[in-house]
Amino acid sequence: MTSLGVELDQVRDSDARLLATVSGLDGARLRGPSLLPGWSRAHVVVHLARNADAQLRMIDAALRGQSVEQYPGGEQGRAREIEEGVTADAEDIVAGLVASTAALEQRWATLPEQAWELETVTLRFRRTVREGIAARWREVEIHHVDLGCGYEPAAWPVEFVGAFLERTVARLPTRMPGTEESGLRWRLVDRDTMRSWRVDGASVQGGDGAADAEVSGSGWQLLAWLVGRGDYGLEVAGKADRLPDLAAYG
């Protein structure tokens, strides 16, 4: 199990890379399209800032023995905050991400040991304050790619891919309701580690056994595809036409 200090360092390193990219954007590039449909780069930056604010708000509430919404007003409130945020000046949008990132890192750095197991409630599930570190890491690394500024999944840290590939595969049945009815059995193979998994209807099993299709490649390629960010040259064998459209679930 990764130590708390290592987890925090991993997110700080990812934050630093993200902020270096964002700080290099002028107004025109910030207003330009991101890789997410309907979102500019400003939308991505504002979302990341509000996400950090939300973590900070939930942590502070947990320290008081309370629970608050991740985003006031739920999904609609989240969307409203982002749309309002992108109307600000470009300099303020960038400064907002810098400030919110620094505030969250500072709160993490000063938390008492017992605070890490306090519970918070997100839009979809419950998690501990410590689990919020991994959640933030995922947000930063994936949305850094979404900016479309040259940072691609191949640059994801090996530790990031290792941490999130397994859990992303495990959650596939919950992300794709109804796939058990298709009868499709497909195998995923990580060529870096030779780990493999078989998705059989609504379950994920070890990679052995018959499969209708096989998707293989480097761990980062698999992870990018599984989170709806493209296949980046994955190898597909068998009934490729029956594989799910994971872009719809990104």
Describe the structure.
With 250 residues, the chain is α+β, with helices and mostly antiparallel strands. The chain folds into 2 domains: 4-151, Four Helix Bundle (Hemerythrin (Met), subunit A) (Up-down Bundle), CATH 1.20.120.450; 159-249, SCP2 sterol-binding domain (Nonspecific Lipid-transfer Protein, Chain A). It is 49% helix and 12% strand. The chain is built from 9 helices and 7 strands; from the N terminus they run αααααββαααββββαβ. The chain has helices at 4-23, 27-31, 41-63, 74-85, 90-110, 131-146, 158-170, 172-175, 219-226; strands spanning 119-121, 126-128, 185-190, 195-200, 203-206, 213-217, 235-238. Strands 5-4-3-6-7 form a 5-stranded mixed β-sheet. Strands 1-2 form a two-stranded antiparallel sheet. A hairpin with a 4-residue loop joins strand 3 (185-190) and strand 4. Helix 3 crosses helix 4, helix 3 packs antiparallel against helix 6 (131-146) and helix 7 (158-170) crosses helix 9. It is globular, with a radius of gyration of 19 Å. The mean pLDDT is 91. Residues 11-147 form the Mycothiol-dependent maleylpyruvate isomerase metal-binding domain. This is Maleylpyruvate isomerase family mycothiol-dependent enzyme.
